[in-house]
Amino acid sequence: MPPRQSYPLARIRILTSAVALAMAFAIASPAHASTDDFEIVFPHDPVVTNFTSSWGDSRSGGRSHRGTDLMAPKLTPVYAIADGIVTVVRDGDRSGRWVAIDHENGWESWYMHLNNDHPGTDDGKADWSLTVASGIAEGERVVAGELIAWVGDSGNAEPSSPHTHFELHRNGKAVDPYLHLRAAYELALESVISELLPAVADLVTELGSSGLRPDRPLG
Ligand SMILES: [Zn+2]
User: How many other CB atoms are there within 10 angstroms of residue 20's CB atom?
Assistant: First the structure.
């Protein structure tokens, strides 16, 4: 048998594992979490992002955590969760470089610890073109899902892993963003799965035409 057959098999294993994992996740999680009246777009690629509920967890100086940390590799794109106007593009001691968007419906989103490093370094010396996307400035309008910035570890995230500290504010008050993020994450994962399914179907066809019997053990 020609050795090329191992190639589609390896690919189909990876794809089917990814789909199985995503399906298991979708089944294990409750129906889409309730999110009041504000539906958001997940601000990262869901495949490279991990997060847990950490609202109220204690932080240095007696503070408590007022958001959700979206853990992702440095320079992962950050997207606007909804349409709005950029109100903050600034640097702060604790927040590091951060962006805020006013969604004009009583809701605001904050994105902190954005990138300040040159790629492949932890130098903290990158200019703002490596922090926020072109055109992102105070007073500018953005749309849901628009690229606004990149993940980093600026401010007091310097000793920790890169992440976006994400906050939601409603009528000027921080609220726990976890359920909103969770619902948006599930939707984003579903769209990843639906993009994968045609590729799986193609591979099944490819395997069929390569003469492999479907009952042949893969291992
Ligand atoms: Zn945080």
Answer: 10
